[in-house]
Design goal:
This protein has about 180 residues and is of the alpha+beta class. Helices cover about 45% and strands about 15% of the residues. It is built from four helices and ten strands. The strands form five sheets. Strands 1-2 form a two-stranded antiparallel ribbon. β9 and β10 form a beta hairpin. α2 runs antiparallel to α3, α2 runs parallel beside α4 and α3 packs antiparallel against α4. It is elongated, with a radius of gyration of 23 Å. It starts with a strand and ends in an 8-residue tail after the last helix.
Length: about 180
C-alpha cells in the first residue's frame, strides 16, 4: 500500500515511542496494512491489543461507526488478530497527549478545560488561604495544568481572552486591588 501526494510517498505508519498510527485512504487497505503490521509485531515478539487500539474511518466525509459487541456485518469493521478494533465513536483515545474523537473537533475538550479552570479558581477562592497564597496557588498549581491543553488544542484566542477576564477578576479580588487595575 503506497500513497503518493505531490510526487512524495506518504508513509502509512507513524511511530513515536510505544504509540503507532496507521493511515490509509481505503478501509480495505487498512485491513491489509493491519495484517502485515500484525505479522511484523509477532515476528518481533510483541503483541498488539485490539482493546487498546482505536479506528477512525471516514466515508464520504461521514464517520463510519460500529460496535465491538455487535455481530452484524463484520466486513464493515477493522480487525486485529480476529478481534474487532473499537471505533473512536465508541471509545475516544488519547494519542500523543491529545484526545482523538469521531467528530474531529476540540469543542468538548475546550468546554472541559474551561470547567477545569473554573473549578480550580473556585477551589482556591473558597479556601482559607490569604490572597497572596491564592495567587501563589494560581501561579504554581493552576497555570501549569492549563498550559498543556492550551499548547496542543486549537483554542480560539477569543475564548482564551474570556478565560483571562475571569482569571483576572479572581486575581484582583485576591490581591485586594480595584477593578480598574490593568493587566
Amino acid at each position: 500500500v503506497e500513497y503518493i501526494k505531490d510526487g512524495t510517498a506518504i508513509p502509512p505508519l507513524k511511530l513515536f515511542m510505544d504509540d503507532s498510527c496507521l493511515t490509509t485512504a481505503k478501509m480495505e487497505d487498512m485491513q491489509t496494512l493491519l495484517d502485515v503490521y500484525q505479522e511484523f509485531v509477532v515476528w518481533s515478539r510483541f503483541r498488539l491489543k485490539s482493546s487498546k487500539s482505536r479506528a477512525l474511518v471516514y466515508q464520504k466525509g461521514v464517520t463510519v461507526e460500529w460496535v465491538v459487541e455487535s455481530s452484524e456485518d463484520s466486513q464493515a469493521r477493522l480487525q486485529l488478530s480476529g478481534e474487532v478494533i473499537p471505533n473512536v465513536s465508541e471509545k475516544p483515545i488519547k494519542f500523543l497527549g491529545r484526545w482523538i474523537r469521531a467528530e474531529g473537533k476540540d469543542k468538548a475538550i475546550i468546554e472541559k478545560t474551561h470547567e477545569d479552570l473554573l473549578a480550580y479558581l473556585s477551589r482556591l477562592d473558597c479556601s482559607y488561604l490569604t490572597g497572596l497564597q491564592k495567587c501563589w496557588g494560581y501561579q504554581y498549581m493552576v497555570l501549569p495544568k492549563m498550559k498543556w491543553p492550551l499548547a496542543i488544542y486549537d483554542i480560539p484566542i477569543s475564548t482564551v481572552s474570556s478565560w483571562e477576564q475571569t482569571t483576572n477578576s479572581h486575581l484582583r479580588k485576591w490581591l485586594g486591588v480595584g477593578h480598574t487595575l490593568s493587566s
